Amino acid sequence: MQHVVDWFNHYGYGVLILGLMLELLALPLPGEVIMGYAGFLVFQGKLNWLTSIVFAGIGSSVGITLSYLIGFRLGTPFFHKYGHYIHFGPERLEKVSGWFSRYGNKLLVIAYFIPGVRHFTGYFSGINRLPFRTFALYAYTGAVIWVSTFISLGKILGPQWEHFHGLMTRYLLIAAIIAGVVVALYLIYKQYKLQIKEAVFNMLVRLLNTFHSLGRVRFLVTATVIIGVIFFVLMIGLIQDYLAHEFDLFDQVVMTLMTLIFDESWALLMRWFSYLASLKVLITFAILTFLGIIRKGQDRKIEVLFLFLVFLGGELFEEGLRRVFHRLPPVIQLVHGHTPYTFPSEYALMVFVVYGYSAFLLIRHSESHVRTIAVGIIFFLVVLSVGLSRLYFTFEYPSDVVAGYVFGGVWLSLNIVLLEINRLIYKL
What we know:
Structural class: mainly alpha
Number of domains: 2
Distance between the termini: 73 Å
Helix content: over 70%
Number of helices: 18
Number of strands: 0
Strand content: under 5%
Order of helices and strands: HHHHHHHHHHHHHHHHHH
Oligomer: single chain
């Protein structure tokens, strides 16, 4: 790291051109560290953001173009004989060849994010006699995306960039792999378009037949059961991670990003978001739901009963969980003379179950697809905004909020299934 600092002190933007050019010729230089530190210098006002991206893009484009020309001129025999001197022997050649056979030319875009692969895609493109126009289109596009990402991350993270560099690189690698899988699926679709369309059509027909045979409500309940099982599995995983103290890094990263993305200007809006989770609003919303059930609901007694079970049972559920886990908040504060525990988040849990129960009833009794979609979107935005407000004011940890959603999902799914079972028994 000290070498990178010294290079920038002496050569400025030239480090971006020369360093990235040499790295993409397969020399052992820390390209991502160079770009991250350049972003940090942009944060300090010592470098210009756009100029840094331009110079970095030029360096990486020149480097990968030179590797393409070398591969084009020398071909496979040279690398079989001398490739081991630049860590590009027969085994690495076959490995990159396998990547190309799976993902095609699109690999040139995502390969920059994959250590050990980006250094050799230029060589391999030349060896395979890839047309230069095709090579340039994908390689230069990937270069711009790569350098823009890491320089921007350095700028956004500021003094924290070095601490989170390794973690961000890991997440970007995962994202690149996912992108590679998406590209592979696209290529498979392009090659087997007719067969895939036929298979999807047959699947949709079977799904539609199932929908009609089960009935709309039964189909909705079946989906709720599946979602409930997923939430239950996630709940078990969260409990295991909590007991193993594996939330620290996740919480630290998310809280850092929150402070960087949401500044003081968001305070008023976040207060409104937080107000949506207050007891007054939740009780008011529960009363409105009660009135809606009385006015238009089917099986009113059962729906009202489960409204109380969801609300009061949810309160007891989250209170019992927090007393079991005993996790203190990020900032210690007294509420009614004692320090509240925060795992899982009582606000995230109660918002999920109260608004979620009302959303389920609206969707269940609605005949409009547009209204169904609108209710789902509004529910998602309300739940998300409340969670963000809890993090913005550092009332709770990110893992507390996630746990609140998951535990709330388990409680809500259980009550919905029991509601429909009781509705069916009542009709019998």
